[in-house]
User: Which sequence fits this backbone?
């Protein structure tokens, strides 16, 4: 099953995919100008890669952020199954993984690596695709 994961932020949406053998690859982040543009780009990405299921990072501790992410998910009007996966500290973990390699966070690499971490957590929890 082809899986994708998004880590929804206010400025960027980190994106990763898993196509075979539980190998997760970060993709270019989506730079967010507004909600509708971001939703269109996520939908285009899902269609282009023929994604069969979407995993969406969701913090367990911040209700306002949870509501914002769920609202964004509704804008996607998904026709594929999706699940939320706990994302706490994924961005911090991503920053630690690439410590010193990236001077500027604005290009979205950290966001997409955080998305990769979230998808790996999902796969680990579910033991398979």
Assistant:
């Amino acid at each position: 099953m082809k899986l994708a994961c998004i880590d929804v932020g206010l400025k960027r949406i980190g994106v990763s995919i898993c196509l075979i053998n539980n190998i997760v690859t970060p993709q270019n982040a989506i730079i967010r100008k507004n909600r509708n543009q971001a939703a269109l780009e996520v939908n285009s990405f899902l269609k282009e890669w023929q994604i069969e299921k979407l995993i969406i990072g969701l913090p367990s501790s911040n209700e306002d952020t949870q509501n914002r992410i769920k609202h964004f998910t509704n804008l996607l009007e998904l026709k594929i199954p999706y699940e939320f996966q706990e994302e706490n500290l994924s961005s911090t973990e991503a920053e630690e993984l690439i410590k010193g390699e990236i001077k500027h966070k604005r290009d979205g690499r950290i966001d997409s690596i955080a998305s990769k971490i979230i998808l790996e957590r999902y796969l680990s929890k579910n033991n398979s695709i």
In short: The first strand starts at residue 3 and ends at 8. The chain is about 40% helix and 25% strand. Helices lie at 35-48, 63-76, 90-97, 109-126. The mean pLDDT is 87.
